[in-house]
Amino acid sequence: MSEENFSQENLPKALVALSLSFSAGLVGIVGYVGGPALACSLATAWRITIG
Amino acid sequence: MNVYAAAIILASFLCGSILGRILIEMSSRKHIRRIASVTLAIEAVMLAALAQVRPGFTISPFWGLAVLAAAMAIQTATLTGIGPLTVHTTFVTGMINKLAQLISHIMFRGYDLLHSKARSAKAHRDQRRDRQQALFLSAVWLFYVGGAAIGTWTFSSLGMRALFIAVGLLLISLATDQFSALSIREEKEQSAESALSE
Known about the structure:
The structure holds two protein chains of two kinds.
Chain A: H1 3-9, H2 11-31, H3 37-49
Helix pairs in contact in A: 1-2
Chain B: H1 3-30, H2 35-51, H3 63-78, E1 81-82, E2 85-86, H4 93-115, H5 121-158, H6 163-179, H7 184-197
Antiparallel strand pairs in B: 1-2
Helix pairs in contact in B: 1-2, 1-3, 1-7, 2-3, 2-6, 4-5
């Protein structure tokens, strides 16, 4: 893949991937499912200490 | 949560994943370019349905978790790669391995470039590409953690309605699919696999 492809042609897809990852993180923590251990641990730790 | 609940949630993830792949396979055969709109719409409806459930309802009656798992599975099937880079937007543990692989490549190639007298344009180009990909995978991780943090923050005040944030983002993604088809690669992969099996 050329740099042009990654930065221009695939830009919408890349932005959607980031957006969907954000959604999955949110859904994961709201529903306590689907999250990787690190994200869940971080969010749970934050919830315990701050939230 | 008992073992049956866990099994049902796991099974619903599998069913969601199968449904997503079936839809992509069908779109591949019928040459439908914007299948991501369909899969993302299904996911958005599932999340919106749960977002209206009263607070505290999701943990004990595990069907809510099962629906969320299925929704995440459908999302997983919708977008699996950007160019040659494999991307998972729901389970990113596999991406740690990919990120580690890229970092290792960058380190070794960087060492070679530093100690080599010959100027290799290709090596420099590959190095730049790997750095770009590593940066992108790191961004995916940051967005994932950011989503989890915002989910934690908003859940205390909004409860399950916090899922509407995810629904909103899905609608933006759905709109993006209208002018830039998102699941083209997935369709091509399905077509290639079908051709190989024939």
